Amino acid sequence: MTSTARRCLLVLLPLLLLFALPADAQDDTRLLRHPAVSEAHVAFAYANDLWIMERGATDARRLTSFPGQEEFPHFSPDGTMIAFTGEYDGNTDVFVVPVEGGEPQRLTWHPGGDQVQGWTPDGRVLFTSGRDGAPVPLPRFWTVGLDGQMPEALPIPRGTMGEVSPDGTHIAYQFPYFFDPEWRNYGGGQALPLRIVDLETLDMQKLPWEGSRQVDPVWLGETVYFLSERDLVMNVYAYDTQTDELRQITSYDTYDVKRLDAGGGVLVYEQGGRLHQYDPATDTAAPLTITVRGDLPWSRPQWEDVSDNIQHATLSPTGQRALIEARGEIFTVPAEKGDWRNLTESSGAADRAPAWSPDGSQIAWFSDASDEYQLMIADQKGLDAPRAIDLPGPTFYYTPAWSPEGTHILFTDTDLNLWVLEVES
C-alpha cells in the first residue's frame, strides 16, 4: 500500500450509538449512568457530563460541560450541592457544584485518583483514594470539607465503595476492589460480604452472605440497601439493621442493576440503560422517563482516519490490490496506481475478516448489519450491492477461506465448529 493511499484512508462515521439519537427519535434517553437522588432532584451521568432534573419531571438539564469526564454524583444532606468525581486539570479529583449550576469547586489535589462516595451528615464529602497505600495504592475512605483543608482518613484500613449512615455513627462498605467488575457471578476470593462498622468503637458486623458478590451499599433510615448476585442476576436487596431481616427488592432476570443511591425517602438505580425509582413506602419500582436535550457535538457525523486500525490485510491473487479491514469497514487499496475503495460504507455495522476469491473477482466477509452475522459476497469493484447469506445461528463467525476452484467457502464459529458453504446455492 502506498503512503498516499494510506493517508487517504478515511471513513465518514455517523456514530450510531443509542445515546447519540435526538430526543424525538426515541421514547426517552438511554445509557444513563450513576444516578443520585435528593428530596427535590435526580442527577446522573450521561455522555461524560452530569445532568439534573426535578423529581417528577422528564427533561434534564446539563449541570457540567467540561471536556473531561464527570461521574459519581452525590447530593449533599441539604440537597443544595452535588459532589462528583471530575477529570479536570489532568487528574481525577473531588469537585462540588451547586444544583443550580455554576463553576465546580475542586476539593482534592493529590495526583492519585479520588472517587466520590457520598457525604457525611455534617457536610463533608466522602471519597475513596489509594493516596497513602504502599506498595500498592489500595483504596480507603477519606473525607474532605468545603473549606480547603486537607482530607482526613477514616479509621478503616481498606474499602472500595460505601456510605455513612444518616446519623453519622456507622459506615456500610464494600471491602474488595474487583479487578474485573463485569465478571458476572464471580465466586472467587474477591466475592466477600459487605460490612458495617461503628465509627466510634470500630465494632464490625458482616451482612448475610452466601458466597456471591455484594456491592454498592447505601442507607435509607436504618436500612442498608445493596446489590447482590445471589440469584445469579445483580438485584437490589435490603438489610434491616434493627431486625437483621434480609429482603430482596427487585427480581430482574436479564440485565444487572448497576448503580444504586438513596435519598429523599426513595432509591434510584440503573438497570438496562434506564434509571428506575423504588419507593419503600409502597414497595413499588418504576422506570423514570428522562429526556436529555443537548448539542452533543461529538455525536455528529465526522470524518475519521482509520489507517492506524488496519487488520486482516491480504494481497489479491494478481498482487495488484490489497484487501484490508479497518475499523469495521472493508477496503481495497492499489499497490501502485488507482484509488482506494470502501466496499461496505456501513460505519454503523461491523464488517469483518475479508477474503479474496481465487480468481480475485469476488470478496467475502462477515457483517452484522442485519443485527446478526451474515456472510457477504461482492464483486471486488464495489459497484453492485453485496449478496447477503444468512448463517445458521446467532453467534460469531471467523476466518472465511475460499476453495481453490472458488465453489465453496470454509469458515468457523465461536463454538469451534467448522462450516462449509456452497457459493452458488
Using brief descriptors, characterize the structure shown.
425 residues, mainly beta, four-stranded antiparallel β-sheet
Quick overview:
With about 425 residues, this protein is mainly β.
Question: Care to describe what's here?
Answer:
By secondary structure, the protein is mostly beta strands. Helices cover 1% and strands 47% of the residues. It contains 1 helix and 38 strands. It has one helix spanning 3-7, and strands spanning 10-13, 33-37, 41-46, 49-54, 59-62, 70-75, 81-88, 91-98, 105-106, 114-119, 125-129, 140-144, 152-153, 161-164, 170-174, 195-198, 204-206, 214-220, 223-231, 233-240, 246-248, 257-263, 266-271, 274-279, 284-287, 291-292, 302-305, 310-315, 321-326, 329-334, 341-342, 351-356, 362-367, 374-379, 387-390, 397-402, 408-413, 418-422. A 5-stranded mixed beta sheet has the order 2-3-4-5-26, with no helix packed on it. A hairpin with a 5-residue loop joins strand 14 (161-164) and strand 15. The longest helix is centred in the first third of the chain and has 5 residues, at 3-7. The relative contact order is 0.11.
